[in-house]
Amino acid sequence: MKKFEEKTIHTEKIFQGKVIDLQIDDVQLPNGKTSKREIVKHPGAVAIIPLTTDNKIIFVEQYRKPLEKSLVEIPAGKLEVEESPEDTAIRELEEETGYTTKRLQYITSFYTSPGFANELMYLYVADDLVKMEHPPKGDEDEFVELIMLTLDEAKELVEKGRIHDAKTNYAILYLEMLELRKRC
């Protein structure tokens, strides 16, 4: 057994949903004792930083029921079965913003909540945006409003708690790092 590895002894599937599955694993710990782990299984997701030609970032505002409030976020969405992260990024960009691009740049991927979930999120930058004449319809239960902000305006919303999710904060830090590099 690797230094910190927890060996799964038994898995009990609790729930299978449209977005997540839940399970409880009995595990053997590195010290030989056993414990339980509540695990959220997720197919993965993408997030996109859409940049306009006039140095604005396209955000979406949407209501987040688990938080009981609206947040301003970068566009994002769940991977569909047999869909590549790149295809998901373009689809979500089009559905949520009405823009498309032929230039999508992969930035990184990260686990959103590794203490209890396996969701891996892929982050992309999209520029050279084109407004679509007939954008595809988004999810019927998803209501979003577009907000175009400069990097400084986005940082103000972080301070006010309107931007309050990890993927969007990560995106803002990434853009800020790019700005700093340009100055050096």
From TrEMBL:
Keywords: Hydrolase
Residue span(s) of domain Nudix hydrolase: 41-171
CDD domains hit by this protein: NUDIX_ADPRase_Nudt5_UGPPase_Nudt14
E.C. numbers: 3.6.-.-
4Fe-4S listed as a keyword: no
Group of enzyme by EC: hydrolase
MF annotations from Gene Ontology: hydrolase activity
Matches recorded under InterPro entries: NUDIX_hydrolase-like_dom_sf, NUDIX_hydrolase_CS, NUDIX_hydrolase_dom
Cofactor(s) in the UniProt record: Mg(2+)
Protein name from the UniProt record: NUDIX hydrolase
